Amino acid sequence: MGLAVCSSCSLSTLVFAGFLVCVAMHPEDLPASHQTHSLFRKKQLQLKIDEALLVLHNELPSTNVAVYWLSDHCYQCSYQVLATVPESEAGQPGIESVAVSSQHALTLQLNDTSDHRELCRIHYSFGEFGNYSLTIKSFRNSTMEVTCEMIINNKPINSHLPILIASLVYLGIFIVWRLGYFLVSVDLIRKWLHIKMSSGDTERLINSELGSPNRAESMSQGLHSVPLNIPTNRLRSLDTFRGLSLIIMVFVNYGGGKYWFFKHESWNGLTLADLVFPWFVFIMGTSISLSLNTLLLKGCSKRKLFTKVLWRSFQLFIIGVLVINPNYCLGPLSWGTLRIPGVLQRLGVTYLVVSSLQLLFVKVVPENIQQDSTSPLQDVLPYWPQWTFVFALEAIWICLTFLLPVPGCPEGYLGPGGIGDFEQYPNCTGGAAGYIDRIVLGEDHIYQHPSPNVLYKTTVSYDPEGILGTINSVVMAFFGLQAGNTLLVYKRLHKQIMVRFFIWSIVMGIISAILTKCSQNEGFIPVNKNLWSFSYVTTLSCFAFMLLLIMYYMVDVKEIWSGAPFFYPGMNSILVYVGHEILENYFPFSWKMKNSQSHTEHLTQNLLATSLWVLIAYVLYKKRIFWKI
Fold it and tell me: Could you tell me if 420 and 555 lie in one domain?
């Protein structure tokens, strides 16, 4: 990683030195090529991450050229103006330099400004911080035939190299850790440790990664140390799943090294950042099923449990509104700019609905249940009231999404607005979902910088954690609840549990394939995180069931993996999430960078900050300290 930093610094130094040499001379004394290279260097210092420099050379006399761009990733978008290149004069080409996106391939269309005649069209993938020249000239001195030639002046950087280096570093740490764990288990070394240390200390060292913390399944509040003599039947794989989702969430929230594929998708489709929140909701539903069943078996009344559920949901909502609110960056928080929806707010509402639904219709599963291997639906049919409620909820989502009249927008619109759909519906971002939020909550109380505003040039506010999407968040949590019901009904029957997880994954995948037509944009209901579309829920549920199956097999059945390091933050998820949001801009989680346009520095900072939260969670786990609300 240090090598990558030094290489970046050396390149910057050379470029800057070359620029100083050029500006020390008079521009009129320089050949045209030197003036061009001077322009390259000067402009390159101003480039941002995910950008490249394109210098346009117009050798056509008496012809100004308009250049338009269109990203391959922008679905049904209209061309946007990039630059206007002046005509060639006195044998010298007209020159204009622009920054272009290097995230996705672009189509450049060049038109004659006088009669809007298309001169040429180029499809090209630019590399990050690369230097390119596009020359427009006549073909065989013809005034009607024009050629456009792309030349690479300076090659782009390898922006993915820091990811490779970071992966190798973490792999090295893992190998060293496993090697140390193996050596401690060797008899000769074990005997030596017995001599140098007390036997109790030796056993604690050898078994430090085994087992779960002994703590009661309760709904008590606060940060507390848990006694060591309380038995538990807690599944370690659930905390591992939750911790994996949480750690990825922390990493992408901190910036993900400023890589576009670690950010949320602009509209339809999925990136790594789009996976984690639904998984967190899914595993919350699984935990609801197991924890409520345990507490009811212990004799807790439903009324008392509902009071605790209501209080916990209220706490999540208030923390999200008053503590973790992105509008703090606009100044002191006031009602006029208070964002009402949010991640914790959605978790609070989802938790309240799913827990209340389970308490209302739950049938307690005893510890010594006799499973009937001949009934393939015994983990589904007893919960038909809950399923009926969820089907009704989804029907409401579908009706509101596709039938609610939205002024100025087509019925059932699911697009991003802005320049999408060839700029026919610029103010229709999110269709019914955006309209409901703007009417019910007010435009000033929802998210002001949604992910489609960069690519699709949207101008209206839109909240990805809005009201309508919360319906499908409840559905996602219910699928997780179904996983918990399966674990309860087929307790200790590992094969049956894994078979049912596999079947659920296949069913969810088939539903997604039908809804999306196996495409990103052409389906009946595309996968869309901003909308929390039903296909998004089924797709992520497909992944979640399969991932839970794998973790359940590796962690709880075969015990070939302890769940580390994800297990530790999974045990303290609320503390890690709230803590990483509050302390995001404080050292050692963040510091001033020497070069804010370097993937290496951003990735280093974001990975160290994320790793530090894993370490904090590990220390708290060892101290048996857990924060629950």
Answer: yes
Task: Determine the pLDDT at residue 335.
Answer: 79
Answer yes or no: do 407 and 357 share one domain: yes
What SS3 string covers 471-506?
Answer: HHHHHHHHHHHHHHHHHHHCCCCHHHHHHHHHHHHH
Instruction: Please state the pTM of the whole predicted model.
Output: 0.85
Task: Give 120-165 as a 3 state SS string.
Answer: EEEEECCCCCCEEEEEEEECCCCCCCEEEEEEEEECCCCCCHHHHH
Catalytic residue among 264, 580, 599, 602: 264
Q: For 601-623, write each residue's pLDDT tens digit.
A: 999 999 999 999 999 999 999 98
Element spanning 57, H or E = strand 51-58
Which residues, including other chains, have CB under 8 Å from residue 263's CB and lie 6 or more apart? 252, 256, 271, 273, 451
Q: What pLDDT is recorded for position 233?
A: 57
Residues 533 and 604 in one domain: yes
Q: Is 602 a catalytic residue?
A: no
pLDDT at 470 over 50: yes
Compute the distance between CA of residue 44 and CA of residue 509 in angstroms, rounded to an integer: 46
Q: Which residue has the tokens 């505003």?
A: 453
Residue whose C-alpha is closest to residue 360's, from 390, 317, 340: 390
User: Where residue 99 sits, what CATH number does that domain have?
Assistant: 2.60.40.780
Nearest-angstrom CA–CA distance, 125 and 106: 6
Residue 341 preceded by cis peptide, ω within 30: no
